[in-house]
Design a protein that fits this description.
Helix content is about 40%, strand content about 10%. Helix 1 (about 15-30) crosses helix 4 (about 65-85). The chain has about 220 residues and is an alpha/beta fold. The chain has a 6-stranded parallel beta sheet. The protein is built from 9 helices and 6 strands; from the N terminus they run βαααααβαβαβαββα. It is globular. The chain binds 1,6-di-O-phosphono-beta-D-glucopyranose and magnesium ion (MG). 1,6-di-O-phosphono-beta-D-glucopyranose (B16) binds near residues 20 and 48. One of its GO terms (biological process) is carbohydrate metabolic process. Keywords: Magnesium, Metal-binding. InterPro entries: B-phosphoglucomutase_hydrolase (IPR010976), Beta-PGM (IPR010972), HAD-like_sf (IPR036412), HAD-like_SPP (IPR051806), HAD-SF_hydro_IA (IPR006439), HAD_2 (IPR041492), HAD_sf (IPR023214), PGP-like_dom2 (IPR023198).
Length: about 220
Amino acid sequence: MKEAVIFDLDGVIVSTDEYHYKAWKKLADEEDIYFDTQINQKLRGVSRLESLEIILKKTNKTYTEEEKENLAQRKNNYYRELLKSLNHEDILPGVLNVLDALKEKRIKIAIGSSSKNTGTILKKIGLDKIFNAVVDGNQIKNSKPDPEVFLLAAKALGVEPLKCVVIEDADAGIKAALAAEMKAVAVGDAQSNMNSSYRLSDLTKIDINKLLEDG
Ligand code: B16
Ligand code: MG
């Protein structure tokens, strides 16, 4: 049986993915760059600057590194403005029950997110004290699909990667989990990802024994 569960944040615990979309869309519109929900799918789990590079593929304009930093900062300001209204009720369906069930079974729980806003988000939704470890975009050099964030989370928990399960909503996150030799569970937008061993539409449908079984 697995000994720890590592949760992605954005798209698994809370739907901040919608806020990311709105903030990038505002920036893209201001810069006159085409951006839609399909392009947005490619940004799931990917770092802020890498997301910007994906968006800039739709323009012939060239930006200096400094201008790119400014664009990313502008997007983050829009995003943080949207985060102000976030609260406990924004926690996605099923999440609190899963966390309770895992705590009861003494299974360790962690966050493994690419977001540098993880601390703010966890505080806003009132989950800043419940996880045994939180690893986020501030602690890693390489974002998903690189396994770094999940390997660091396993290390912080003191659990071997083979004994960890990752719950993810992004293809980049599923790849990262598998590269870390962890079991990958796909929810929401990643549920069609056939590389994951357990796929479900949301966490209300989860079977805790199936989540924790080896394999
Ligand atoms: P930030 P996750 C990721 O969070 C998001 O899915 C991705 O869209 C975002 O670009 C990335 O965090 C960086 O976020 O701009 O807040 O540092 O899914 O890994 O929890
Ligand atoms: Mg995500």
